[in-house]
Amino acid sequence: MSRQGLVLAGATLLVAVTVASCVTEVDGTAQPPANHAVAGNTDAASAPPSTGSAGTTGSTGSDSERSGSQGAAEVADPGECVSGGDPAPIDCDEPHTVEITASGTFGGAMAEKPPARDEVFAAVFPSCRQEAAAYLGSDDYDLTTLSAWLLWAGEDAWARGERWYRCGVAELDKANEAKQRTGSVRNALRGDGVHTYRLCSLTAPSEEPPAPTPCDRPHRGEAVAVVPMGKHTDPLPSEEEFDAAAVEACEKAVTTYLGGAREDVAAAWRWPDEVAWKRGFTNLTCYAQTEAPVTASLRGVKESPLPR
C-alpha cells in the first residue's frame, strides 16, 4: 500500500491507494519484483549482493550453482534472459520477459526449508533494487516502466535440492505485469534513457496506482522525479514528513519538467507504506498530472497548449 498527495490550485489531497507488485507464480518458481539475493540467514535484508556489481558473476555462476543440483534444469545467470515462468536461459535478442541482473544461492537457515514469499522479499528485495539501478545505469528507474524482478526456486525445485535465486529487471505493461520484449536493457537508462522508458499513466496518480501506457497515448500522469527518503532499515517517515518533502520537491520538479509553471498541470506524488518501505521502496515519486488525458509528453511544453 502507498499514499499520495496532490497540489493543485493551492489545495492538498491525500488518498490511500494500493501499490501493485510484479509477481507471478509458476511451476516450482515464484517471481516477484525484486533484485538482490542473499545467503546465510533469515535476517538478510542488509546482506551484500551475491555479485560484486551488476553484470558480473562474482563468486556465482558455477555449473553446480547455476543448475541447483545434479540433473536439475539450467537456470539463467546475469546477462541472460528468461521468458515467462521458465528460468532456463535464452538470448536477450529473443523475445523474453525478464533480464537477469544477479544470482546466488540461499544458505544458512533460509536453506533448510522453502522460505515463505514474505521472508524472501524481506531478505533480498532491498538489495535487488540496488542491483537493478546499477544494471540499468540510473537510480531513477522508478520513473520508468522498468522494474526490479525476482525469481527463486519453488517447492518442487527445492525438493530436488535446488536453492537458487535470480534477480532481474522487467518492463511492465498497463497491468503492471512483465511484458515480452527483445533486446537488453543493460545501461538503458544512461543519458536520456529515463525519458525513453518514462512512466506515463492512464490513471491519475493522485487517485489510484499508475497504469503504464506509452507517453504518445492518452494519459493523465507522467513520473518526473524521485525523492530519496532514507534507507529501508530506517523507520518509515511519517505522512507529515513525506508530505513536507513532496510539496517543495515535486512542485519544483514539475515546473522544471514542464519548462515553466502552469495552472492546468498539478504536482502529485506517491510514497510507500511500511511493508513496501522494508522491501526497499524508499523513494517518494513525483508526477505531473492533468485533469484530462494528454496525448504526448509534457516535457518542455512550456506555455504551449496541452496536447489533446
The stretches of 5 or more residues where confidence is low (pLDDT under 50) are: 8-71
What strand line-up does the widest sheet have? 2-1-13-14-12-10-11
The averaged pLDDT comes out at 80
- Enumerate how many helices there are, as a single number: 6
Please tell me about this protein's structure:
The protein is an alpha+beta fold and 308 residues long. Helices cover 19% and strands 28% of the residues. The protein has six helices and 14 strands. It has helices at 63-67, 117-136, 155-159, 193-196, 239-258, 274-278, and strands spanning 2-8, 11-17, 24-26, 29-31, 81-83, 86-90, 98-105, 146-153, 164-171, 200-201, 212-213, 219-228, 265-272, 283-294. A hairpin with a 2-residue loop joins β5 (81-83) and β6. Mean pLDDT is 80; it is low at 8-71.
